[in-house]
Amino acid sequence: MGNLFLKKYSSTIKISFIILSILGASGCDSAKQDDPSLSDTKPSSQQGVTPQNRLIPGITDERLVNADSEPQNWLTHGGTYKEQRFSSLEQINLNNIEHLGLQWDFDLQGTRGLEATPIVVDGVMYVTGNWSRIYALDAKTGSLLWKYDPKVPPEWAVNLCCDVVNRGVAVYADKVFAGTLDGRLVAVNAKDGSLVWEVQTTPTDIPYSITGAPRVVKGNVIIGNGGGEFGVRGFVSAYDAETGAQNWRFYTVPGDPSKPFENPILEMAAKTWTGQWWKLGGGGTVWDSMSYDPELNLLYIGVGNGSPWNQNIRSPEGGDNLFLSSIVAVRPDTGEYVWHYQTTPGDSWDYTAAQQMVLADMELDGKLRKVIMQAPKNGFFYVLDRETGEFLSAEPFVNVSWATHVDKQTGRPAVVPGARYKQENFMGLPSPFGGHSWHSMSYSPDTGLVYIPAMDLPFNFQSDPNFQHNPIGVNLGIDGVAGAMPEDVNIRKAIKAMLKGYLLAWDPVKQEAAWSVEHKVSWNGGALSTAGGLLFQGNGIGNFNAYNAKNGDKMWSFNAQTGIVAAPVTYAIDGEQYVAILAGWGGIMPLLLGEAVADSAANKVNRVLVFKLGGDKQLPPLNVVKRDLNPPPQTASDDIVNHGRATYQQFCFNCHGDTVVSGGVLPDLRYSPFNLNNEAWKSVVLGGALSSKGMVSFKQILEESDVEAIRAYVIKRAHDKLAEETI
């Protein structure tokens, strides 16, 4: 039935993910807006501050290499350099999980998405909130030790594709390291949070950003960046942990071939491109995943999508476009290239390979292999030899329509005719949200399974015939106006029913699913597996769950009061095991595709939640303010409303939702008091009345008539909502 529906409406159902981030990442909710100037909320359970004579963590290379021997700590982003997100702690297990309860919570500043993995070192938890703020908390009590605010300019939010989020810190020696939304790498004192050094890692005249967590390898702090949707050129850099001096930089796509290449391997890569890609940026940002093998001395970096997305524009005569959508192995000491494997040659669908890369040793065909595993956006689960990059296997872990299979001899996908949408639209699976996005997966050596926050979402890829390169804005090469959701309520409901999110247990040896648990919404949190036989994951409707890792049976659940997208960790203090997770709804899907997450718990709560056996703390009741939908009369003509729809879909929906349907992160403009009065509306959109909250002025881009038309369209959609509520 779903396939018939998809076929019938393939020309009108265009589930939009086009990241047109010109509007900025904040809006006009006067009730509870995320304002960088607001002060912190103290933890409700502990008002005191731990004494400042706490020891500075002595994180050494040796401790990081042997992190699996310290299960009481969570020393690096993935738990260890292997990025398995598995803990050998087993005090909390299948036999006593029903006694797990909340021990403490801490409210973080702001109301936007939380994506960070806490780092726990010798009783101290280091975590980032939104706007790149860093916190140090007593991991036993929740007391705030210190906070560092890098004071990212709110107006920089206009340069972000995917919310004002940050995925965490790295800790090394006596310092804590984090990237900032405006491209800085900061090092702060681990004892008191004072700034030690900072360096601008990216150009400031191009819309680069950083949301990923740095890694520290052999004294080098390694950080990538984002901005692939905006026309940047990707690279990853290493900085001296003590001084902040840049030690090396590896560019992931070649620059202008008329100039000397920064790295000899880029001369080879340039032969896989056509046209004048360097004028468009190229993309290839290293915006999230890295892992490291100390024995092989190889650092693995995951490379993102092309810029523009549409290869027909970016590289018009085709080509593989290295190193887009690739896993690349380099030497962490120098950045020297060693090998690469490209998951999606000539990417044209935003199928990044920036997703988590897990290292493991496993028996394949009777031989013990050192492997690297990845479930990237393109929907295939890959197993490679991590020493050589040799392709071992790949099978689809979600529904895939862009390729029939990956050839076992060449390791290349068999792309279906028409998938590159040169002449006609292409209904693609997965969507640009991916079969798996940045949400962390977990590998359990006990079960041999990889646990993936998976998604099935279709997307109608359509080339933009009027594409013009914007040096400071979004550059996708896809028609975002035509890609909007239909406004017919019945079609929207039918489309929503197609969008699936689930927790998938995948056997990487057999390359098949072991079990799965379907979620109510598509956008859900990362996973953690433990030696206690448990698998933890939060979801979009606000439940933090524990499952039996062998069969997926739900063993325990906690109402977090808000949707969860981050991944949990576990640690131990004084012989007691704790489980921690950040709860705060946000990210790209809630910003863009509100219809897909209409059932989410979006209560603007931002907390660290920490559990242990016997914990009995209760969260305070939610103070939910009911909003009244009371739009002004519609006085504009149909032509003006239609112009407003087109303009909104071009400039506004990246933050306020496709066809003015909010996903709960930013204000729903249908309810905004500013749309009641045209002068008030113009004071925000043209006058910059809310620029301190990230809603920049658009007077350099939009005419007054455009702004009035957008308001007319918002009013129309508010009346549509009223009509739906009376059905």
Write the layout of secondary structure elements.
Elements: H1 2-8, H2 61-65, E1 86-87, E2 100-107, E3 119-121, E4 124-128, E5 134-138, E6 144-148, E7 170-172, E8 175-179, E9 184-189, E10 195-200, E11 215-217, E12 220-223, E13 235-240, E14 246-251, H3 264-270, E15 282-283, E16 290-293, E17 298-302, E18 306-307, H4 311-314, E19 326-330, E20 337-342, E21 357-364, E22 367-374, E23 380-385, E24 391-396, E25 403-406, E26 413-415, E27 426-428, E28 442-444, E29 449-456, E30 459-461, H5 489-498, E31 500-507, E32 512-519, E33 527-530, E34 534-538, E35 543-548, E36 554-559, E37 569-573, E38 576-583, H6 588-592, E39 607-613, H7 638-651, H8 653-656, H9 678-685, H10 704-725
Parallel strand pairs: 1-33
Antiparallel strand pairs: 2-39, 3-4, 4-5, 5-6, 7-8, 8-9, 9-10, 11-12, 12-13, 13-14, 15-18, 16-17, 17-19, 19-20, 21-22, 22-23, 23-24, 25-26, 27-30, 28-29, 29-31, 31-32, 33-34, 34-35, 35-36, 37-38, 38-39
Helix pairs in contact: 7-10, 9-10
